[in-house]
Structure formats: C-alpha cells, structure tokens
Design a protein that fits this description.
The protein is an alpha+beta fold and about 90 residues long. Helix content is about 20%, strand content about 30%.
Length: about 90
C-alpha cells in the first residue's frame, strides 16, 4: 500500500521518516519530497508498505500525531490522476 505522509517538519530526514514507520512493518520504498533547487524537504512524502495490514496499523497509529509541534497527516495515497493538459503546437 502506498501511504501519503503530510504536514511533516521541514527538517525531517528520510532516515527519521523510516524510523517512524519501520516499527509497524516492512518498508518497500520511501520518498521524502524535496525542493529540486535547495534540496530541502517540502514537508510531505510517500512510503510503500507491501503488507496492507501493517500499512493500516501504521496509518491508524500515526495519523494526527504530533511531531515537532506539527500534527502530521497519514493516509492511503490516492492514485495520481492523468493530466488532460496538452501543449500548444505552433
């Protein structure tokens, strides 16, 4: 299951995020979204947990918990919608 994690402190590292979720089960992949120019975290990320029951436990345990003064948001990630934007041809 792909999990969205938002409202993270901007100082959070991938290792800290991994440590938060590893106690609930196996992590397939982890992606903390960063600004491409500064390299600083944008305050959200995605975690893939192959076992759905472990992922559900992590979501229930971590959603709306406080982390460095911020209430984080943890839920199942929605599928990315296909863009209907088309480039103009000149």
């Amino acid at each position: 299951m792909n999990i969205y994690v938002g409202q993270l402190p901007y100082s959070m590292t991938e290792e800290e995020l991994r440590e938060m979720f590893i106690e609930y089960g196996e992590i397939g992949s982890l992606n903390l979204i960063k600004d491409k120019f500064s390299g600083q975290s944008k305050g959200f990320g995605f975690i893939d947990m192959p076992n759905n029951s472990e992922a559900d436990k992590a979501i229930k345990a971590l959603n709306k918990t406080m982390l460095n003064g911020r209430e984080i948001k943890v839920n199942q990630a929605e599928e990315r919608k296909k863009s209907t934007f088309r480039k103009k041809r000149y």
